[in-house]
Amino acid sequence: MAANLPAPDRRPLIGITGRRFRLSLLNGADPRYGDRCVDTSLSDFATRVAEAGGVPVTLSFDAEAEAACDWLSGVVIAGGQDVHPACWGGDTSVVSDVDPRANTMAHDVDRDAYEIALVKAALDRGIPVLGVCRGLQVLNVALGGTLIPDLPNGPVSHLSPATAPTDGTADHVVAFEDGSLARELFGARAQTNSWHHQAVDACGAGLVVTGRASDGVVEAVELPGAPVLGVQWHPEWMVRSDPAMTWIVQAAAEHLAGRTDSLMQRSAQ
Predict the structure, then answer these.
(1) Domain annotation covers residue 6
(2) The pLDDT value given to residue 70
(3) Residue in 69, 84, 133, 172 annotated catalytic
(4) For the chain, first and last CA: distance in Å?
(5) What percent of the chain is modeled with pLDDT above 70?
(6) For residue 7, is it within any domain?
(7) Residue 234: inside a domain, yes or no?
(8) Which end of the chain is more exposed for a tag (fewer CB within 10 A), N or C?
(9) Catalytic residue flag (residue 234)
(10) Active-site entry in 84, 107, 196, 234
């Protein structure tokens, strides 16, 4: 039986979510295959996860959430299009009838359903979760929270015109709560990039706000007692190394080690 146990030094497998769209959207794609779809996650995530010691994998919507979490040691819910307002009780009249396979910024109910299921499956198993931008909002919605559908213009630029990667601008500084995981990772304050027009309104069950921009917009959330972190910026697109990416790999490695120890103890009984 021991031969089937994972090696003590095995690197943690980190699942990264993304989009599904038609090949016809890609310049130079062979038109014969244009109506076929491709599942993607940003290679910037994969690179940062690998550099931190993890093994990144792209999660297709077909990778059933419960089954995927039997293998994964960490989950990254990536950025992207708005969460469909039907998921959180918002105004559905603003939703246009656009095919998300033909427009990567259109609402995608399949992606919403998959990522919400993945968050719930990971939380049930104690698997570390990092939510990035849209991913923070998915995390909140999965726990019953609501969103601000469109932030008003104000003193802080949240929908930046800057090209990635960037460390953001001086107006976008996030302050973190004492005693929080975010404070431990980022310090008291950190300048970050920003590409979003929606934000957390009411927090989902158990979630607490641990970081805000100077205008009060939520920039970091956590689930006390669980390895869960949501950030509203894009750590994979910071020029400097962002501690969120290191954290998810380290937390996943600890989860994997704990699972391995449990398996070894059971095999010895």
Answers:
(1) no
(2) 97
(3) 133
(4) 11
(5) 94
(6) no
(7) yes
(8) C
(9) yes
(10) 234
